Amino acid sequence: MNNLLRTKFLLTLAVLLLLPSCTTEFLDRPPEDSYNVVDFYQTEEQVNSGTNHLYSKPWFNFISNVSWCIGELSSGNGRTWDPRNADFTNFAITGEHGTLTQAWESLYAVVAQANSVINTMPEFVHPDISQDVVNNAIGEARFIRATAYFYLVRIFGPIPIIADNNLYVLEPVVPRNPESDVYEFIKRDLQFAVDNCYEKIRGGSYDLNAKVSSGTAKAMLAKIYLYEQDYTKAFQLSQEVITSGEFKLYGGDAEDGDPSGSYYDLFLTANDNNPESIFALQWSTSGQYAEGNGLQSLFAQAGVTGFADGWAAIGPSIDLQEAYEDTTQDLRYYATIMDPGSYYDDLNGGYAVSPTVNHQGTNVGIKKYVVGNAATNGGGGQQSYPNNTYILRYGELLLINAEAAVMGGGSSAYGTASLNKVRRRAGLGNIDNPTIDDVFQERRIELAFEFEFWYDVVRRGPAFAINYLGNTERGAFNNDTTPPTINSEMFSPTMDDMLFPYPTNETQNNPALQQPPVPYNFGE
């Protein structure tokens, strides 16, 4: 890229708060028709707000349209007849699928916009701004870039690592890099965030909890090591975050919880950024984040939202319903799944679930991330709701700690205690000597409809995953019989189904995606 073009490009970068959510270009670049970046980053307030957009806008399509298709439909936690996304349930996704394409475009938009902060802020920030302030903002951007790459590598496997989009403006053919290099890149980003983001304690002023902290990055780094099966580091880092006291279970034991809340309360808009929230996307229909999410439009049934949406596009699978240890005792069931006739006093001022509720043939509905009409959920409109989306919370961190311990990475006593804190908050009894299957089961129920289960299944290895997924009930109830019977549907995946194909338009535009991965140049 010649110097003149590079200079023109840098001088016309948009103010980052105004960037679009995504584009159809793989190497998404900011528009060249807005404010001059040279005039931005001149005050601490501008530096601090320069990362706001990274918490919402570029994530919209991935969260609203893709995350639940991969995390819940493909895993068998959910089912659908919707022809747009039914292929996620039967392992028939190809590179032509529009929803899959949105995953690539949205996540690389996150990467591109994080890169804009990382690469332009140091050059154009006012010299009087403290380096600690600058490094904190860059740490936020590097954390969010790492999180986007974490999704990309889990969905697609080897992918191109882009650290500076400007370098490829005139050379859009980019090789893919090995998964091991992607994970190394992620870890370096997260370590920078650990070292440079502010340390915090999550208190009662929830708005102050919104942004990434050093502890946030350390918790995510623990999860990365869990995926790499480095159980010693996963245990060590998760234990450090636990003992730091930065985060707490919302509800649970007094020693490690916030008794003012509960599992159900985690998902109320009023409790966004509660002390359990380690990293959540910040949706709002006004104010500094200024972007709502569309999950309620897809999850809710007609009449709940107060608008024309409420499409019930996915239902909790029969397999998931049967996976609960005790649907009356486990408090997470009521917070996740709507049974016929259940009553929710906080939803729209009081809401009774229809006796005939039947999302996608499952004879139940979804409650998690369904928050009701604008008058009772903090505002919003169709496909634009203000409630946060969790990416990582303390309940999961405790289960990371438990899994690392079970796999030999640390104290079994600490790991068992972590698991049982999650169970007691849910209203269940302790497990004295948990196994990996116990942790796997707990993760499934604790994180149901938080879009993690597909990745949990796949990371246990192809032999386990193929067997497990092939024996997951994906059928619907036949209500023409009394009692209803099940029209069983099961689908057997192959090794190739453990990763998703690259979008066809991306392989056409970037033929290097079809070539063997090449090592990433870390500049060492």
TrEMBL record:
Annotated signal sequence range: 1-26
Domain SusD-like N-terminal: 25-226
Key word Cytoplasm present: no
Protein name (Swiss-Prot/TrEMBL): Putative outer membrane starch-binding protein
InterPro entries reported in the protein's UniProt record: SusD-like_N, SusD_RagB_dom, TPR-like_helical_dom_sf
Domain RagB/SusD: 275-517
Main localization (coarse): membrane
Keyword entries, A-Z: Cell outer membrane, Membrane, Signal
Source species, domain of life: Bacteria
GO CC, alphabetical: cell outer membrane
Annotated localization: Cell outer membrane
Provenance organism: Winogradskyella pacifica
Family assignment from sequence similarity: Belongs to the SusD family.
